[in-house]
Amino acid sequence: MRSDSGSPRRFPRVPHDRRVAAFAIDFGAASLLGSFGGANAVIPLFIIAWYGLRVILVVKNHGQSLGSWALDIKVLDPRLRSVPGLLTLTQREAITGLGSLLIFLGLVNLSPANGFVLVAPLPLLVDYGFALTDNEFRQAWHDRITGTVVVQTRRGYSLDIKVKKIFAQVGNRVK
């Protein structure tokens, strides 16, 4: 991740909570779309929704998925300083999509006797655990494999900031 002159490239780092919240928004949207099908269509609809939200939309929307746009973050290819290509994003989201699909299946088949829901998040936790240990670029495993980074941007809705302002206003009114 160094420039041609040898100096390290700096990108605005994304706080972990923002990145997790953006993922949760995308997961919620894909889960909602995936749940519209019958029992036989749940998995294909989730995969199509995930690919549409996390690959096609990202290519068309300057590196931002729905959740990324809501929280002012985007994915970049640090070498080119631009949005990764379709193949790179497909590889990146195949990793996170598989983990997301496992969680989705655990939630769809939720029952007291189903212990799968307890182990379903493990692949995503391991994947994102890499970002927790990387203080410089905060790259998760899927980012390291595909050579991408997640950075803050000014383009988006700033949902987290707006929610904080609403809570501050409510707090001031209560006092």
How would you describe the overall organization of this protein?
This protein has 175 residues and is mostly helical. The protein has one domain. It has 8 helices and 2 strands, in the order H-H-H-E-H-H-H-H-E-H. The protein has helices at 16-34, 42-60, 66-70, 86-108, 116-119, 122-133, 141-146, 159-174, and strands at residues 73-76, 149-152. The chain has a two-stranded antiparallel sheet. Helix 1 (16-34) packs across helix 2, helix 2 (42-60) runs antiparallel to helix 4 and helix 4 (86-108) packs across helix 6 (122-133). The chain is globular. The termini are far apart. Mean pLDDT is 89; it is low at 1-8.
Produce a short descriptive summary.
The chain is mainly alpha-helical and 175 residues long. It has 8 helices and 2 strands; from the N terminus they run H-H-H-E-H-H-H-H-E-H. It has a two-stranded antiparallel sheet.
Number of domains: 1
Uncertain parts? 1-8
Percent range of helical residues: 55-70%
Could you report the average pLDDT, rounded to the nearest whole number? 89
Strand content: under 5%
Rg over C-alpha atoms, rounded to the nearest angstrom:
18 Å
- What does the overall shape look like? globular
Largest sheet: 2 strands, antiparallel
> Which structural class is indicated by helix and strand composition?
mainly alpha
| First-residue to last-residue Cα separation | 49 Å
